[in-house]
Amino acid sequence: MQATVKWVDGRLFVGESGSGHAVVMDGPPDHGGRNMGPRPMEMILLGVGGCSSFDVIDILQKGRHDVIDCVAELTAERADAIPAVFSKIHLHFKVTGKNLSATAVERAVKLSAEKYCSASIMLGKAGVDISHDFEVIEG
Question: Which end of the chain lies in a sparser environment, N or C, as judged by fewer CB atoms within 10 Å?
């Protein structure tokens, strides 16, 4: 896997993934940025949410569950000292479907957390306290 990050100006950077997709990252004005994109640490949090959501949907669809929507709401805490690493991340999944059982969703979330989500498992091994919960919404 490869990526490049190019400085534009101020605290504005453009990252390009090995698959050819670009994203703008920027800082807040009080740190020399113009608030033109997410912060790099927000990108890490989004990556955790995207990776885990990918797993949950994949597992549920492979199980032939009728999923209509899946939203992962993430909250994170960071250390007060420099480096301001994540100390806690919580993922709350809101999964909507037709006749979707809580057992199936619980299994998908657990498999993602314990076996498949590279991003959250990597951060967990680095000492981040990662927790998950979910709710099932009838669609």
Answer: N
Residues 32-48 have pLDDT tens digits of 999 999 999 999 999 99
Residue ranges in 11-139 assigned as alpha helix (H): 40-62, 102-111, 118-125
What is the H or E stretch that residue 37 is in? Answer: none
pLDDT tens digits for 61-95? Answer: 999 999 999 999 999 999 999 999 999 999 999 99
- Alpha-carbon distance of 52 to 49, in angstroms, equals 5
Beta bridge partners of 93: 72, 134
Q: Do strands 3-9 and 129-138 pair parallel, antiparallel, or not at all (unpaired)?
A: unpaired
List of domains in the chain: 1-38 (2.20.25.10), 40-138 (3.30.300.20)
Euclidean distance between CA atoms 37 and 59, whole angstroms: 31
Q: Residue 6, exposed/middle/buried by CB under 10 A (0-12, 13-18, 19+)?
A: exposed
What's the pTM value of the predicted model, to 2 decimals? Answer: 0.94
